[in-house]
Each structure stands twice: as structure tokens, then as C-alpha cells.
Amino acid sequence: MRTTANPPALPEEASGRKNASWFEQLLSEVNSDPEMDLIGGNLTATVSFTFGSDRHDLVFQRGKVVDLRHGKKIDWRCDFGFRASDETWDKFFADPPPPLYNSVFAMIMRVPDFQLEGDSMVLAQNARAVTRLLDIMQEQGRL
Fold first, then answer.
1. I want to staple 107 with a disulfide (CB 3.0 to 4.6 A). Which of 65, 114, 120, 123 is the partner?
2. pLDDT digits over 121-130, tens only?
3. Pick from 118, 42, 127: which is nearest to 78 by CA?
4. Top-level class of domain 2-6+18-81+116-141
5. What percent of the chain has pLDDT over 90?
């Protein structure tokens, strides 16, 4: 596993913004998750998460995160991703999340600030694995 372009470490804020070290921990959780092992075998894609202006890409090969990219570069493409303000992500990570913020699929449909970027077909083809990824993110984000 590689990590690319680490920006200066940010403190772990009270807001929903997650920093590079949080994504490093997420990588470990995702790659050791038995459910992801069962359902993620076809997930080969780059998935971006943008918290306010901070972007983080998870590069998956056969359901495992093989690279993390922090920041933005012109030649870094993603297959699909999720973009929202810190306030919207705060609600997603709340315990429990308020109505409409419990699932990215609900957020895509009903929360104007939450945006799906890229190829929605790749998301649809990997919906179960992406749902598990987001479940792991919520569990980790609430700790």
C-alpha cells in the first residue's frame, strides 16, 4: 500500500473533516474487514471523498485499498466520489445521524449540498461494497 502526496497533518477537528491519518486508519479497517472480503472482490475503482475543500482518494483493487491520495492533482482521476460541506459530513457521522443523513443514497437524492461525482454506473455496479465502505466510515467516524 502506498500513500501519495501527504499534506501537512491536520489536527483531528471536532467537525466532520477527516485528515490523512484518519484515512490511514480507514484503510486498515477496510482491508481487514471480513464482510468487505466477501462482497468487495469486484471493486476496482478510485473513490474520492471531499470534505469541504479537502479531497482524499481511495484506490481499490479487488476490494482492497492499495493507495491513498490526499489533495488534488490534475492527473489524479477518480471513477466516482462524494462531495459535501463539513457540516453535511458532520451529520452523516452523527450518532445517530438525522433523517436523510443515515445513507449516502438518501443524501444523494435529498440533500442538495451532497453531490455524487463521476460515473454513477461504477457506483451502481459496486453498491454493496460501497455501502459497506460507508458503514465502516460511519463506525470509525463516531469513535
1. 114
2. 999 999 999 9
3. 118
4. alpha beta
5. 77
